C-alpha cells in the first residue's frame, strides 16, 4: 500500500442520516496518517465507472458537519445493481486511481456489490480493503439489530399516525395510511408507536409478514369501527395474498381498472384508494380517507432521530477503523448491548449480501393485526429524544337541560 | 347578563394549533370576574344541538397547556354547515343553558354560522355576544393577513418539498407533489420556501388561481427536465381548466377510468398518479414519482410554527377581550404591523362570513408557475424559528484517468 487513497459512495434509496455515515468516513479517515485523499463517487457505483469523483479532502469540517445533518445522499445515489461485468468496470477504475479502501453505504444490493468487488480484487492480487456500511429505512439487513435510516423513517411514521389519529378523532371515520416496505413490515409496525391512549389508532396494522385476506380485513375494520366509532389503519405497501400476489394488483383487477394493462400500482396512491373503495362499498361507511406516505417518509426534512444520527455517524467511523486495523473486508453491523446502547461488528460480506430480514414472529401479535410489547421495547429507544406527545381534555360533562 | 357562562366550540378541518385558540379562550375567560363557567361543545355545532358540553372550568392549567400544544381539535369537530333552522336549534340550547358568550373557532362556514346565530339572538332580544375565531390551513379568510393553522401547514409543505428536492437530486427524475387547497393556492405556493439553491426544486408550481393547460404543463416539465436533468413540481389539488373543470376529472376521463361513474378524485392519490402517467406517456421520462400529501399536511404531529402557536393563542385571548370589552359581535382578524409583528381587529361578521380569499396577483410570478419575492417575504416570518436547512458538498472534482 502506498497511495493512501480512499473512496466512498452512497447507493440505493436516500435516508435522513446517510450523510452522517459519509461524513463519519471522511472525518475519521483524515485522522489516519496513511490516508492522503478521501474521494467521493457521485451517484453511487455509476459514478465510479464514470470516474465522477469529488475530493472530500478539500472540504471544510464545518461544511461536512452541515452536510451530515442534511437528509438524502449528498454524493447522489443510483439504483444500478452491478453484475459481475459491472463490478469489473468498478475494479478497473479503483485500480487506475490506486484506491486502496472502498466504502459503500447502502442496503442488500450494495453489500452484494462490495462482496463481488472484494472477491475480484483478491483474485487479481490487488490490495483493496472493501467495507459495506449499512443503510436502509426498511430495516431488512440480516445480522443487524437495526439499520441506520430506519429509526428516522420510523419516527416519521409514528408521528404521522399520532397526528392522523388525532385528526380522525376530531372528525371520526376510517383512515387508511399506506407505508413503505415491500417485504419487511418494520416501518409499518412503527405506526403503533404513535399510539398513547388505549383507544388511540392505529387500531389495525397489516404487515407483509402475514397473508392478507380482504374478507378478514373488512370484518376487522367493521368491528373496530363499531367499537370506537372510527378506525385508523396502517397498511404496508407489500401486503399480498397467500400466493404472494400483491393486494393492489388483485383489487385493481376486481374493480376492472386494469383494462389498459398498464395501471402502475407501486409508488402510487392506488392501494390506499382501492382499500378505501372496498370499505365504502362493502361496509357502507361514508367518511373513509386514504393517504399514501410515499417519499415523505424517507425524505421529509426536519424529522430525524438523534439516536439514528449518532449511530449513522458511528458506522461510518467504525468502517474506517475496521478497514485500517481489522485486516479483512466485511459489512459493519449494529449490535444492541443494553437498554439502550449499541456496539459495532464487522460481519463477513457473504453473511449480509443479498439476504433479507423480515419481522420476527415475537414482534407480531397473535391476531396478526397488531404488534407486541417486545416490538414496542425494541423500537422506542431508536426513535430518539424529543418525540412530540399528545394530550386530551379530561371528561367533565355538563348536565343536559333540554334533552335530560 | 348574570349567568357568566361561556361556550366555545371548534369547527371544520383540524389544524396543528387550533387547540391554542381553545385554550386561549378558556384561560383568558377565567381572568374575568363575571365569567363563572367555560363550556366546550364536543364535535362543533353538532355538540351544541346535542348539549354535549364539557366543563373546561374543571380543567387544570397544566393540562390545558399540554392540550394547547397538541394538534387537531381537542373538543372534536364537525363538517355540518348549519342553515337557518339548524342555527335556531343552536340558539335554543344557548338560551336554555343561559350561555352569554359564544366563541366558534373555524373557517368561512363557521363565521357564517356565528353570523346567523348572532342575528337570531338580536332578533329575539337575547343578550348574546358571539365571536368568530379564525382558523384554516387554506389561508382563505378575507380581512386577515393570514389565518392561524396556515403557517404550520405551510411549514410542513416547505419541509416536505425541501426533502423531496434532496431526494430527487440524489435519484434524478420527475417528482409531483399534490398539495391541499381547492380554491386558494397559498399552501401549494409554500412549497417554494423549501428552495435554497437556485437550481433547487420545486421548479414548477401550479396554483388554482391560474388556468391549467396540460400542453403547457408538459412543455414546462420537458424544459425544466432538460435544464436540470430532473424536475420537482408542486401542484394544487384544485387545478382546473378554463371552464373550471378539475384537471383530475378531465384526466380520469381521458384515460377512461371513469366507467363506473364513481371514481372519487378528491382526497385520493388520483391527481398525482394521473399527472405522472401523462409525463411518462408523453415525455418518455422513466423515473416519475407522485405523492399526495393528504392529511399529513394538516395533522402531522411535530411540525409546527412557533409564530403560528403564539398567534393562535392570541386570537383566542383577544376574542374574549373583544367580547368582554368590545360591545359588539364580530370576527377576530390578524393584521400585520411590522416585519414581523401583528395586531388583532374585530371585523363585522358579514365582512368575513362565506367569503373566500385567493392568492393576490402580486404573489404569483408572470410565468404563472412560480411565486414572487413578495410572497417569499410574506410567508417566511410565519414559518417560525428553527426551520431545518439543507447543505451541499462543494465542487472539487478529481481529474479522470481512464476517460480523460
From TrEMBL, chains A, B:
Required co-factors: Mg(2+)
Sites annotated Important for catalytic activity and substrate specificity: 109
GO annotation (BP), single: fructose 6-phosphate metabolic process
Site (Important for catalytic activity): 135
Catalyzed reactions: beta-D-fructose 6-phosphate + diphosphate = beta-D-fructose 1,6-bisphosphate + phosphate + H(+)
Binding residues annotated for Mg(2+), in chain numbering: 108
Keyword vocabulary terms for this entry: Cytoplasm, Glycolysis, Kinase, Magnesium, Metal-binding, Transferase
Descriptive protein name: Pyrophosphate--fructose 6-phosphate 1-phosphotransferase
